[in-house]
Design goal:
heterodimer, A: 432 residues, alpha/beta, FAD/NAD(P)-binding domain, D-Amino Acid Oxidase, Chain A, domain 2, seven-stranded mixed sheet, six-stranded mixed sheet, 16 helices, 37% helix, B: 92 residues, alpha+beta, Alpha-Beta Plaits, two-stranded antiparallel sheet, two-stranded antiparallel ribbon, 4 helices, 23% helix
Chain lengths: 432, 92
């Protein structure tokens, strides 16, 4: 194993492999360092691989070559309580034709494939290598030491794409030394085997169509939500919890997941499914305010490591932001090699590029969205309100009906309180 | 579903050397212990009787929840397992 490279990328996830691919294509000698036995071994996500226009530029036939599952043609949102649920759904033929708007994927397959594309372009993938520390020369980052496979790798520049906890960014002094539990969420997920035809029939799907659903009111009052995604012949079902709220709740993620699976309407969707795998991962949900310093002398930070995750509550985006930031970091390193300058003078161009891109524009535009997600009543009272109003609307039991506006007012008063309802509506409006 | 079944389906290559080490004295004096309920892998157990924390790294999903929720900096070591060890997702 060579020990000198022109660039080191830590982490073969979407950000790291996109960066390595970009640099290898430009002829740089790149080491892509991964702690798993294969890329994707440690990775899970809740959801959808949204459209990635920047990777399409690097790999024009991306969508035909990548190991994807179903394309998302149908999206739903469910407000639920222990007994009831109210469901809204959107479907359009426009999401049923290429270029598709998003796909479900298995990370151990997808991440591995993307890393192999970087290898095909000339990058050196080093698996089973956990980065232990940064090597510094003359006050700047000049390499890494690894454990598992042990040794030292040297390069004039390192891209930290080592995920949400990024110990690399911490050691480089670029991120806060202590995370704020209010800016982090944990996702837990169960994967169920289910025959393809059963999934098609149950969710009203044809061909490669996929369905994605989000749930509110399924987290036992903990701030968070649920999700369900269809793969070809399996379902991903899970919950996401804000850590500050989970910590004080005294409730456990797996008990709440179990309750969610047993909720009568959810249980029907899972019927016949066989549990295959349980997984968990953190999500940097703090948005724009959580983004660390993105560059230092000899180092750039990309993907989850840079908290580039857009959890607005409508779409939950991460991989597309990670991949785009990886490409921009890669392009900046290419420029640094042309100038032979790896100081912040050149590396700050990465932040400039990112600021000009949709990644930072979206994060900035939705910087207050996390505030809305801190309205506690979203997770219990409002789903109960919606379900109870619907029950009143539909119920016919031989008693005279209240007028609808009166009924709504009465229910809002009883379940939430008028003052709260008005202030929450204002908070939500401002946040979005 | 029996909760134990949830955990049985995930694969691990367990390192003898734990990647997370706690100073249990800190845990004993902690009044929060959010790690116990927050850890998605049930790695932390608090015994009220013995006033003692137990941590087992075997089933750790390497998510970092404990690292973030701990308010007392109880970790004398918190790092990812050596390359090649720890949780191994197949398809998630």
């Amino acid at each position: 194993m060579s020990t000198h490279y022109q660039a080191i990328v830590i982490g073969a996830g979407p950000a790291g492999s996109s960066a390595a691919l970009t640099m290898a294509r430009a002829g740089l000698d790149v080491a892509l360092v991964e702690r798993g036995a294969y890329p994707g071994e440690k990775n899970m996500f809740g959801g959808i691989l949204h459209r990635m226009t920047s990777i399409e530029e690097v790999l024009p036939d991306f969508w035909t070559r990548a190991p994807l599952e179903r394309h998302i043609a149908k999206k739903g949102t469910t407000f639920m309580t222990g007994e009831a649920s109210f469901h809204v759904q959107h479907e359009t033929v426009n999401f049923d034709r290429a270029p598709y708007n998003g796909y479900t994927v298995f990370r151990p397959r997808f991440d591995r494939w993307l890393a192999e594309e970087a290898v095909a372009a000339g990058a050196t993938l080093i698996t089973r290598a956990t980065v232990d520390d940064l090597v510094r020369t003359d006050g700047r980052i000049a390499g890494v030491t690894i454990v598992g496979r042990s040794g030292q790798l040297n390069a004039p520049v390192v891209i930290a794409a080592d995920g949400v906890l990024s110990f690399t960014a911490k050691k480089a002094g670029l991120r806060q030394p202590k995370f704020d539990a209010g800016q982090m969420a944990v996702g837990v997920k169960a994967l169920f085997d289910m025959p393809r035809e059963v999934i098609d029939d149950r969710f009203g799907l044809a061909r490669d169509q996929g369905f994605a659903n989000e749930f509110v009111g399924c987290t036992g009052g903990v701030r968070g939500g649920g999700f369900l995604y269809t793969n070809y012949d399996s379902l991903s079902l899970g919950l996401v919890f804000h850590l500050a709220s989970l910590r004080t709740s005294g409730k456990t993620p797996y008990d709440l997941l179990n309750q969610f699976m047993e909720q009568p309407q959810v249980a029907k969707l899972l019927r016949g499914g066989r549990l295959q795998e349980y997984s968990a991962h953190l999500i940097p949900e703090g948005g724009y305010h959580m983004v660390p310093e993105l560059f230092g002398n000899g180092i750039l930070v990309a993907g989850d490591a840079a908290a580039l995750c857009n959890a607005t509550g409508v779409n939950l985006e991460g991989i597309n932001l990670a991949s785009h930031s990886g490409i921009l970091a890669g392009n900046t390193v290419i420029e640094a090699h042309q100038r032979q300058d790896f100081s912040t003078t050149t590396l700050k161009r990465y932040k400039e590029r990112l600021d000009l891109s949709w990644v930072m524009k979206d994060l900035k535009g939705f910087r207050n969205a996390p505030k809305m997600l801190h309205i506690e009543r979203i997770y219990n009272e409002y789903p109960e309100l919606v379900c109870s109003m619907m029950e009143h609307l539909y119920r016919i039991d031989g008693t005279p009906k209240t007028s609808i506006p009166k009924m709504i007012l009465r229910e809002v008063r009883a379940k939430v309180g008028l003052k709260h309802a008005i202030s929450d509506a204002l908070t939500a409006w401002r946040a979005l | 579903m029996n909760i134990d079944e949830i955990f049985d389906n995930t694969s691990f290559t367990i390192d003898r050397e734990p990647h997370i080490v706690l100073d249990y004295a800190v845990c004993s004096s902690c009044d929060n212990r959010g790690c116990v309920n927050s850890c998605p892998a049930r790695c932390y157990t608090w015994s009220q009787e013995e006033q003692k924390m137990t941590f087992v790294h075997d089933g750790c999903l390497e998510c970092g929840t404990c690292y973030v929720v701990c308010q007392r900096d109880a970790f004398t070591r918190w790092r990812y397992p050596r390359g090649g060890f720890g949780v191994a997702y197949r398809m998630t």
